[in-house]
Structure to design on (1088 residues):
């Protein structure tokens, strides 16, 4: 398993520093929560890790792989999966087909053309359908799902990729308390065999995860530690409550 | 249900040339005119399929598919020109008439090999495929999508039209190629040649339909839909969408080239007018009218719009462009799923 | 041989056929403008002489123009006199009061290449004021001197030809070089000087043609840049709006044809075309296009269909053949800039017009309330809506302005292109290339894009031909987009997404 390593990463948009000399290390199997006010650079950080945005300066490595030199598909195939803030599933495909697309398998056009759904793959999809609570909706178009169900489908697609590192952006927005609990439990269970980075506004959820927390502010790390440590850090209090 | 209707249609089409052989006073007799025109529509249907594959499934709206069609036509046209041999007006054993007229002393290198039918057919597929590969690679690599791609492909066919109008390109300039004599040893003016071409087109359409159905029914088809609806998301899932788009664009261009290659011997002429941007966009409207994203819809659209065109241009030629314009407006505003959507909507 | 004066020659007219012919020849060589009407009248059998020896044309004194008191006897001519008259009149045309006649005569004298023309040309040059004709006269004088037998005159001739700097002068020098070995060095220098001038002139003319094409593209693309930039709407009927603008010009011209306002028809066409096309634009936007926002491909097809119907309507109403739109006098002809660079007036006007329209649009966007609202909608449509901007109205107005500018472009194009139903078809693709190349949403980009495309086209044309130049530009744009997918002047940051 690989660790994620960001060092001195800066991203400039038109003279505006979306990330400012950000450094971060995620150990293999770690579960890390990242919080921060709007505009702190959380989404830009995700974009940099997944190859959507190239950093102006700085190092981004996953194990020995230099992520700044790779595009999105190659980074995804390397084992970095991402769940977006706004669930983006393919509305014109069924729930089952969405999961099938995400399933770890050869990605080339000819391989896709020849691909046949084998027994083990079907079992994996079925298992994920059970995990995300949508076994009855398998043949429905994803466009017909409710917001919460789409969140679950997106998490399911992330699981199907069997990534080494999961980047999860606001997973519990629009979920009921019960579902939030379920999600926290799921992420905790996954961590250990995989690394997980969760970006979340919901401090209760972060507390429920009970792991190491990083606070971002204006593109760099403001504070890092347990949730209690972070919540008592005067700089964090100033950023969240001050001014 | 779709399948049954489709089978019935194919059988009816296959029966047409046989009915043509009935004596002319028989009420079931089908005229030569009908055979020629339906033969043309079969080629248009293949073109429509190719556009639907790229647009309806992968979201690539090419306004330059007419260029691939015309290139396929030119490839087979070059073969037909070579077959004229000494029967041309100037009686030159090798050079086509227009080259003698323009003072060529020998065949340009890009005409080599076209005396062979398999070579010409291979070129009819390879040249559009290669062009699509180059254009597609450049465009998709820099994430040119949507309307940008449409305009780019339109500019492409426009530029090709201008280029083919030039005499010094070596493709007959303004007049293109015509006065074909024979193909594969059959004189083109006989009814048996007409019948042969008709069946060849029908077979090509059925094979193309089967191929497209196989693709869209496979996981590749679902990846294409994913690319169409959320390309960026598909990339985060690990799909290098450039490859998938390029694959389908090249395949689609080759299908269009095949359609053009079958079309030219039936109409007996190919000239730079085939590259006109209007032709490409009209073909897009066949697909939209029939119902994009359904293969049967594309074929239905090609047949119905062209049937309407044939009828209307004979009874009220001034009206045709208004009707065609109205079809554009209707399919975008009122019939987003086309005729197929209308028919299936009713049934539900 | 002593030079006889004009006055001494007068009495000899009509003395005898031989004397008349000699006098006519002498007058032709002198280049006195007073001689021309006399000789013409003589040639037409209208010149008479009164008993007191005064010359009379149609009952008026030939020199003073006063009414002649006494009857005159018409002077007779024979074939010998006619030949002499023809030669003399041809040379004297060089001092004719009509500028076009003078220019043609100077050209003819240059072609006859006779050393005897030197005094005539010197006389004409002393009198000539128009720079264009002076240049021609100097060229002819140089040529005549070059073939004279006077070495100093020859040198002066070479210098004059070098000064004239035309291709004709260069050819003449090359011709003479072999037979005038003693002048070879001077002639070579002169040829080199001419080559330099010709190269400069060619470059200047290419530049002008490029700017001219660029300004046409700018006019055609400006409206498109606005609708595409603000609304993301590809208006395929844009070319038809341009065409409608050209036809509006034609209709205005026909309506004013027999009125006193005829000379004003072109300036009046500008607001007329704007109003007509803007109204059609609003109708299209509110009636049809509005329903397809967020679906650009469908909009593209819809507007193409509309364009098709507009084109066919115009074809049915006005016919498929070209309609003639006249140019006002102040736009006709060409202007000769220093250095012998000829620019056509109408193209020069269009360059200024295009820039004026661009400045007006930019000012409107920058300084008016509508412009502010429009910029807000471009930046963020949803937030603009929450701020109370009626985005629907902004869209309609934007579409109106975009279409109206297309109509104005049509007025300009009616001056240099055929006014036919498919006028717009040729411009739509190039206009899109301009917008894409310049960067969507930037009018400055549209300007730079249009000029770059125009210049590149014209620079490549001499080497590649018009068609291949177009193809090369297209391929160039495709490669350019590889490096800068958002065009030259791209919006950056979050607003661009």
């Amino acid at each position: 398993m690989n660790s994620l390593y960001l060092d001195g990463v800066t991203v400039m948009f038109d003279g505006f520093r979306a990330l400012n000399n950000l450094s971060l290390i995620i150990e293999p199997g770690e579960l890390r929560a990242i919080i921060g006010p709007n505009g702190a650079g959380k989404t830009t950080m995700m974009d940099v890790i997944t190859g959507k945005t190239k950093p102006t300066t700085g190092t981004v490595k996953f194990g020995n792989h230099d992520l700044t030199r790779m595009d999105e598909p190659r980074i995804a195939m390397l084992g970095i999966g991402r769940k977006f803030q706004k669930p983006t599933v393919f509305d014109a495909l069924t729930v089952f087909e969405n999961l099938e697309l995400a399933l770890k398998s050869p990605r080339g056009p000819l391989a896709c053309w020849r691909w046949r759904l084998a027994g083990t793959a079907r079992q994996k999809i079925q298992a994920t359908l059970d995990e995300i609570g949508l076994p009855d909706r398998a043949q429905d178009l994803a466009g017909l799902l409710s917001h919460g169900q789409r969140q679950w489908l997106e998490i399911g697609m992330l699981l199907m990729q069997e990534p080494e590192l999961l980047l999860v952006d606001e997973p519990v927005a629009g979920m009921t308390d019960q579902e939030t609990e379920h999600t926290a439990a799921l992420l905790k269970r996954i961590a250990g065999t995989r690394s997980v980075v969760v970006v979340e506004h919901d401090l209760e959820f972060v507390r429920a995860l009970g792991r190491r927390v990083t606070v971002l502010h204006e593109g760099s790390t403001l504070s890092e530690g347990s949730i209690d440590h972070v919540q008592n850090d005067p700089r964090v209090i100033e950023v969240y409550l001050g001014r | 249900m779709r399948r049954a209707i489709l089978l019935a249609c194919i059988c009816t089409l296959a029966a047409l040339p046989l009915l043509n052989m009935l004596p002319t006073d028989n009420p079931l007799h089908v005229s030569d005119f009908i055979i020629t025109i339906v033969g043309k529509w079969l080629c248009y249907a293949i073109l429509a399929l190719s556009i639907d594959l790229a647009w309806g499934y992968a979201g690539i709206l090419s306004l330059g598919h007419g260029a691939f069609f015309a290139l396929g036509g030119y490839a087979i046209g070059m073969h037909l020109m070579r077959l004229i041999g000494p029967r041309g007006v100037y009686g030159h054993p090798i050079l086509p008439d227009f080259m003698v007229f323009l003072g060529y002393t020998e065949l340009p290198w890009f005409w080599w090999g076209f005396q062979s039918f398999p070579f010409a057919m291979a070129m009819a597929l390879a040249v559009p495929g290669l062009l699509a590969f180059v254009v597609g690679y450049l465009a998709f690599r820099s994430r040119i999508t949507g309307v940008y791609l449409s305009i780019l492909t339109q500019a492409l066919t426009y530029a090709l039209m201008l280029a083919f109008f030039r005499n010094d390109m070596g493709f007959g300039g303004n007049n293109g190629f015509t006065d074909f004599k024979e193909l594969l040893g059959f004189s083109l003016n006989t009814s048996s040649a007409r019948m042969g071409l008709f069946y060849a087109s029908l077979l090509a359409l059925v094979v193309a339909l089967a191929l497209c159905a196989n693709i869209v029914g496979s996981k590749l088809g679902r990846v294409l839909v994913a690319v169409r609806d959320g390309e960026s998301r598909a990339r985060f899932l690990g799909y290098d969408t450039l490859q998938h788009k390029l694959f389908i664009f090249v395949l689609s261009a080759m299908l269009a080239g095949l359609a053009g290659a079958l079309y030219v011997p039936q109409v007996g002429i190919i000239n730079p007018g085939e590259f006109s941007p209007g032709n490409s966009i009209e073909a897009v409207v066949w697909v939209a009218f029939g119902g994009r994203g359904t293969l049967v819809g594309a074929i239905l659209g090609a047949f119905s719009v062209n049937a309407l065109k044939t009828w209307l241009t004979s009874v009220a030629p001034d009206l045709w462009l208004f009707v065609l314009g109205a079809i554009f407006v209707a399919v975008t505003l009122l019939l987003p799923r086309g005729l197929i959507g209308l028919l299936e909507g009713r049934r539900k | 041989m002593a030079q006889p004066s004009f006055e001494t020659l007068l009495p000899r007219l009509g003395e005898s056929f031989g004397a008349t012919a000699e006098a006519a020849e002498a007058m032709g060589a002198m280049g006195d403008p007073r001689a021309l009407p006399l000789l013409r009248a003589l040639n037409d059998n209208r010149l008479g002489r009164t008993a007191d020896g005064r010359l009379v044309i149609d009952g008026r004194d030939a020199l003073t123009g006063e009414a002649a008191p006494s009857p005159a006897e018409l002077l007779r001519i024979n074939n010998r006199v006619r030949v002499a008259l023809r030669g003399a009149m041809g040379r004297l045309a060089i001092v004719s009061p009509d500028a076009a006649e003078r220019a043609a005569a100077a050209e003819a004298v240059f072609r006859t290449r006779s050393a005897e023309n030197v005094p005539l040309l010197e006389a004409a040059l002393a009198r000539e004021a128009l720079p264009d004709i002076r240049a021609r006269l100097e060229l002819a004088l140089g040529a005549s001197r070059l073939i004279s037998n006077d070495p100093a005159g020859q040198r002066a001739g070479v210098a004059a030809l070098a000064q004239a700097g035309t291709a004709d002068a260069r050819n003449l020098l090359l011709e003479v070089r072999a037979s005038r070995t003693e002048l070879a060095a001077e002639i070579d220098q002169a040829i080199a000087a001419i080559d330099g001038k010709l190269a400069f002139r060619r470059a200047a003319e290419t530049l002008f043609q490029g700017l001219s094409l660029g300004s046409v593209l700018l006019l055609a693309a400006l409206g498109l840049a606005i609708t595409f930039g603000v609304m993301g709407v590809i208006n395929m009927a844009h070319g038809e709006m341009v065409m409608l603008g050209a036809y509006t010009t034609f209709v205005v011209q026909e309506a004013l044809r027999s009125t006193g306002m005829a000379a004003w028809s072109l300036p009046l066409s500008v607001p007329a075309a704007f109003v007509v096309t803007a109204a059609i634009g609003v109708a299209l936007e509110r009636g049809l296009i509005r329903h397809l926002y967020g679906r650009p491909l469908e909009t593209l097809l819809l507007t193409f269909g509309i364009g098709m119907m507009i084109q066919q309507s115009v074809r049915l109403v006005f016919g498929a053949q070209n309609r003639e739109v006249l140019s006002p006098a102040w736009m006709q002809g060409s202007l000769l800039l220093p250095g012998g660079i000829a620019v056509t007036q109408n193209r020069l006007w269009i360059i200024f017009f295009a820039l004026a329209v661009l400045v007006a649009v930019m000012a409107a966007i920058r300084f008016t309330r509508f412009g502010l609202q429009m910029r807000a909608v471009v930046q963020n449509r949803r937030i603009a809506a929450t701020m109370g901007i009626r985005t629907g109205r902004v869209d309609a107005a934007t579409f109106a302005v975009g279409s109206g500018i297309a109509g104005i472009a049509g007025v300009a194009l009616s001056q240099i292109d055929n006014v036919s139903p498919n006028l717009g078809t040729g411009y739509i693709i190039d206009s899109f290339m301009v917008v894409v190349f310049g960067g969507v949403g930037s009018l400055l980009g549209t300007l730079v894009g249009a000029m770059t495309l125009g210049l590149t086209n014209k620079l490549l044309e001499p080497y590649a031909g018009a068609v291949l130049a177009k193809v090369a530009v297209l391929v160039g744009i495709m490669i350019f987009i590889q490096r800068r997918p958002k065009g030259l002047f791209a919006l950056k940051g979050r607003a661009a997404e």
Remarks:
- Strands of chain A lie at 4-13, 16-26, 31-35, 57-62, 65-66, 80-83, 165-169, 195-199, 213-217, 220-225.
